[in-house]
Write a structure and sequence with these properties.
The complex is a heterodimer of chains A (about 650) and B (about 230). With about 650 residues, chain A is of the alpha+beta class. Chain A is built from 17 helices and 19 strands. In chain A, helix 11 packs antiparallel against helix 12 and helix 16 packs antiparallel against helix 17. Classes of the chains: A alpha+beta (about 650), B mainly beta (about 230).
């Protein structure tokens, strides 16, 4: 499941799918969320701004409306004949009463009246501020009125700490003789009225600056806010040049407010400045945004959960059959071909499952063939057959051929039922086959009780002849051990053979042919004559010099023109006893005398050997030959070879 | 701001400056004629003729001509206006206020020189209300019904007074030669009590021709009420 080259490795296909899905979904959803949220927030802030601007406009409008009413009332006052009479009477006390009377009649539209003469001297002041001659803003007010076409001006002026909307009008008698200044307070009632209309909170704050500009005292004069929110407002609101036109966020205990300032009185460096603060609850307006946001998040969670479920289902629909397939394939790897996997789908995985099933069937069949082949032919040949293209034809190879036969088997079989004969034969042949295979040999064929085995074909090894020698020793020993009266006789030779598939194109057989094969069979046949268990050719002996041999003879077998020096394999040198070595040396000396035609010496030695050695038959063979050669000399060119005319 | 700070003082200063200016621009152009007199040509700072200004010659000698009979003048009320808007009367004289409109008027004055007010009255009671003006000074009269109605009665010390015409020219003849104080009053003259004075010497048989430039204050008047222009209330 993991690839070496990739940065991410996944333990399972499912987690890969999930990561892929999340990697795809989360940026997309996140992007949408960011876009929608920021747009919504922006829109909400715009809405709040609009409300605030509206609130400020209504504040101004309400103020203007009341100012207009004030103007109407004050204006009417200037034409009131009784008031004129009172003014002409030049009695301030009377005038004061007249002014209070007017204020009472105005239904609070006029809450203060101030009358000054044209020189600015205060005649009456219902607020009793103690001014004798007007100055400052009041003076500005009258200046503006005097400059205007209609002799009228209005302004917001702080009176006794409370901002008043004031208006100045001329008093005609019938020419102008004085100024009448009427005013109403921007008080709690006023801000309540504005709030009723705009649903925005309104506060009027007073900013007093000390001698140094840093010390400033901010006081909320009136407000529609709760008391603790007023304190937050006073603590947080900023009156810098940069912030005065901006919207400000006030974090009050109850909620957040967005605030807009309106300057009511005083310029920016004046010691006393009055501002109106229009406020709108941020939370209330952003409620929709918050609601929408949580809806969006819920929707996203739903999408994620549904997608995850879909992915899990998808992953499951893929991994379940794949896991099944993997298990089956593992079983197949272990050699269990009987399992088949069932996948109910027509897609690629279904195809894969079908392929695995047919592969398993194919492998099972092949294994069956291999198994059977291994029984019919040797394993090595079976492998050779299975792994190489099977074709007729062969190659010249050097190989060691072993022929084994069972001596005494015919006698052994007499009186036995055929089934038991076969059973006994199979037992012996199995033993021989196992020994051959144990020594990397290949059983080529069985012929009755005879076995032909190959060493060095089809697979060449380093010690093929040695292996053949060891197999020979084991076979002889095994049959002696069986103690069934049977003994093995074995012939071995080494030489060039033609190896390959023999037969027709439909039915063929891996085997070897050639003189070497024939020689091996002859050598096995000679063992009875020489009374030995085995005979190996000189070529084989030279190829496996690590063993102890006894030279037997030089023979010229039937069908062959060239003589062959033959030996008896005695075993490994270390296992030979001193007596045996002595005997072998004596035999070799006797053979030399024999070949030099010193008949007497040779006969004496063979006779001597015959008495103490275990192979009297061999000595008798040479003694018989010596008798014959005494009668008819083999001639001076004789090399010591013996010619066999028949097979 | 400086001007605003001195807003109330400035009118006084302006007046003083103005008196100085007038004295400079006083050009005495006398010419010989059969009888001695004064011709005064008035213009404002824009060079426009000043109409309805009153020129009065105040005799420096105590013996002024007082032999004339008590003067009676009439100030008509027509189309909700006083006609004429400026009237002169010698102290001791009187003025009547006939009503030529078909609605009632209520004439009043709060001027210190003469405070009075009439009841509401109509045209059938004409000249019934007559007010005597004993004290020299300017009486501003208005109508309590029609705020814009405004007229001035200039109560002079003698008959030596006249009102400037459309060309801003005002002339007097027949006074005794001698030294006089020439007083010019105008309702909008930018000076305390709207007048200013200048010594002038009248020579026998010569007409003193004077030119004077005066500064007028803003003419802030009450507009006629809109209903006055509508037929239905007439």
């Amino acid at each position: 499941m993991s690839s070496a080259g990739s940065v991410f490795s996944f333990r399972s296909f499912r987690s890969r799918l999930i990561v892929f899905l999340l990697g795809l979904l989360i940026p997309v959803l996140g992007g949408i969320f960011y876009y929608v949220n920021s747009n919504n927030t922006e829109y909400t802030e715009e809405t709040i701004n609009t409300y605030l601007e509206l609130g400020a406009d209504v504040f101004d409008y309400t103020r203007e409306q009341q100012a207009f009413t004030l103007q109407a009332i004050t204006n009417s006052l200037t034409w009131d004949f009784g008031f004129r009479t009172a003014y002409a009477a030049q009695d301030p006390a009377t005038l004061f009463d007249a002014a209070l009377n007017v204020m009472d009649r105005s239904l609070d539209s006029a809450e203060m009246l101030l009358i000054v003469d044209l020189e600015g001297r205060v005649i009456i002041d219902t607020e009793t501020q103690g001014m004798e001659i007007l100055s400052g803003s009041w003076q500005q007010l009258l200046f503006d009125a005097d400059e205007s076409e209609e002799g009228r001006s209005e302004m917001i002026i702080a009176i006794n700490g409370l901002p008043f909307q004031v208006i100045a009008l001329p008093l005609y008698l019938p020419r102008q003789v004085a100024w009448i200044i009427g005013g109403f307070a921007l008080d709690q009632e006023f801000v309540d009225t504005v709030k009723e209309t705009t649903l925005s909170d309104v506060s009027i704050v007073k900013l007093e600056r000390g001698g140094d500009s840093s010390a400033q005292d901010l006081q909320v004069i009136v407000s529609t806010l709760a008391t603790e929110d007023q304190s937050a407002l006073a603590a947080q609101i900023q009156f810098d040049d940069s912030t005065i036109s901006d919207l400000q966020r006030i974090r009050a205990p109850s909620q957040d407010y967005t605030s807009l300032l309106r300057r009511l009185y005083g310029q920016k460096s004046d010691p006393l400045q009055v501002f109106a603060v229009i406020q709108r609850s941020y939370d209330e307006n952003s409620e929709n945004v918050v609601q929408f946001r949580s809806l969006l998040i819920q929707f996203y969670l739903l999408v994620l959960v549904v997608s995850l479920l879909a992915v899990l289902f998808l992953a499951r629909s893929i991994t379940t059959p794949i896991t099944k397939l993997a298990a089956v394939v593992k079983k197949i790897e272990e050699g269990d071909y009987d399992r088949s996997v069932t996948v109910q789908s027509a897609d690629e995985i279904g195809e894969l499952a079908d392929s695995v099933n047919s592969m398993a069937r194919g492998l099972a069949e092949k294994e069956k063939v291999r198994d059977l082949l291994g029984k019919v032919v040797s394993h090595q040949i079976a492998e050779q057959l299975l792994n190489n293209p099977v074709e007729l034809g062969g190659e010249e190879r050097v190989a060691t051929i072993l022929f084994s036969d069972i001596r005494g088997f015919t006698t052994f079989c007499e009186g036995l039922p055929p089934k038991e004969v076969l059973q006994a034969l199979n037992k012996v042949l199995s033993t021989i086959s196992d020994i051959v295979e144990a020594h990397q040999g290949v059983v080529d064929k069985y012929n009755g009780d005879a076995v032909m085995a190959l060493f060095g074909v089809p697979i060449k090894g380093e010690t093929d002849t040695d292996n053949a020698m060891l197999a020979l020793l084991d076979i002889v020993a095994a049959l002696e051990k069986m103690d069934s009266g049977l003994s093995a006789c074995v012939g071995i030779t080494t030489g060039v053979v033609v190896a390959g598939n023999l037969g027709s194109s439909n039915r063929m057989n891996y085997s070897v042919i050639g003189d070497t094969v024939n020689l091996a069979a002859r050598l096995e046949g000679l063992t009875r004559l020489y009374g030995v268990s085995n005979i190996v050719s000189e070529a084989s002996k030279d190829d496996a010099p690590g063993f102890a041999y006894r030279e037997l003879d030089i023979v010229c077998v039937a069908g062959k023109s060239q003589s062959v020096r033959i030996f008896e394999l005695l075993g490994e040198p270390a296992q030979l006893s001193d007596e045996k070595k002595e005997e072998v040396a004596l035999f070799a000396e006797a053979l030399r005398q024999y070949r030099e035609q010193n008949w007497n010496e040779a006969a004496e030695m063979f006779s001597q050997l015959q008495t103490k050695c275990d192979n009297a038959q061999l000595c008798q063979l040479f003694l018989d030959r010596i008798e014959k050669f005494r009668e008819t000399s083999p001639g001076p060119d004789w090399q010591g070879d013996y010619v066999f005319d028949s097979k | 701001m400086k001007a605003i700070d001195n807003f109330f003082q400035c009118s006084l200063q302006k007046a003083a400056g103005f008196v100085f200016a007038v004295s400079v621009s006083f050009a005495l152009l006398t010419s010989f004629a059969s009888a001695q007199g004064v011709v005064l040509r008035l213009q404002d700072s824009d060079g426009e003729p000043v109409v309805e200004a009153v020129m009065e010659l105040l005799s420096d000698s105590a013996s002024s001509s007082t032999s004339t009979a008590l003067q009676e003048v009439e100030i008509d009320q027509r189309d909700k206006e006083f006609i004429p808007s400026v009237t002169t009367v010698v102290a001791g004289g009187s003025a009547s206020f006939p009503n030529s409109d078909d609605i009632l008027h209520h004439v009043y004055s709060f001027s210190p020189a003469k405070t009075f007010d009439t009841p509401l009255y109509g045209s059938d009671l004409d000249s019934q209300y007559r007010e005597v003006f004993d004290v020299p000074g300017v009486i501003e009269i208005g109508c309590n019904i029609h705020d814009w109605m405004l007229a001035y009665i200039y109560v002079g010390q003698s008959e030596l007074m006249a009102i400037s015409d459309e060309q801003g020219v005002v002339s007097l003849t027949g006074m005794a030669p001698g030294s006089y104080t020439l007083r010019v009053w105008h309702s909008r003259l930018d000076a305390p009590q709207n007048y200013m004075e200048q010594e002038v010497i009248i020579e026998a048989g010569r007409t003193a021709e004077l030119e004077m430039t005066i500064e007028l204050a803003r003419d802030r008047r009450v507009r006629r009420a809109p209903s006055a222009n509508r037929k239905r209330y007439r």
